[in-house]
Automatic annotation (TrEMBL):
Family matches, as InterPro entries: HIT-like, HIT-like_sf, HIT_Hint
SUPFAM superfamilies xref list: HIT-like (SSF54197)
Organism, as annotated: Pseudolysobacter antarcticus
Gene3D superfamilies: HIT-like (3.30.428.10)
Pfam families: HIT (PF01230)
Lineage top rank: taxon: Bacteria
Domain HIT intervals: 42-111
Coiled coil: none
Name of the protein: HIT domain-containing protein
An MF annotation (GO) of this entry: catalytic activity
Length: 144
């Protein structure tokens, strides 16, 4: 399987687009901020069409994705000093391959349960969102 990192046929799933803010792009993945201020929650989406599972990525791209996940995890650790980082690729609702990276605290709204299905999302206020996005982009070394 050959890498198609900058494939122009990549289209972000509309559900992901509706629930997130774009932070920028790594070499392989689009980096998104989940619009739920209760949790520091990023999502990486490899920019290749028709991916559903990690195994659909070429081996070299799986290594790139793992490096991008490690980089994202390090940035969230620096910004939030979480008790635990949750990293998951579920795809039960959105089939497009995407990986969640969530910084968890023992006093967050869902602890110790998974964040899915707990309460209602709390959208970021505009000013707080813009400030947080700037901090994330700096920590992730993303330029738009």
């Amino acid at each position: 399987m050959q890498s198609t990192i900058d494939n122009p046929r990549f289209v972000l799933d509309p559900r992901l687009a509706a629930d997130t803010h774009v932070l920028g792009d790594f070499a392989l993945s689009r980096v998104l901020l989940m619009n739920d201020a209760r949790f520091p929650w990023l999502i990486l989406v490899p920019r290749q069409p028709r991916l559903r599972e990690l195994g659909d990525l070429a081996a070299a791209d799986r290594h790139i994705l793992l490096d991008e996940l490690a980089h994202t995890s390090e940035a969230l650790q620096k910004l939030h000093a979480p008790h635990k980082l949750n990293i998951a690729a579920l795809g039960n609702v959105v089939e497009q391959l995407h990986v969640h990276v969530i910084a968890r605290q023992t006093d967050d709204a869902a602890w110790p349960r998974p964040v899915w299905g707990v309460g209602s999302a709390l959208a970021y206020a505009d000013a707080a969102r813009d400030e947080y996005i700037a901090a994330l982009r700096a920590a992730l070394n993303l330029h738009t």
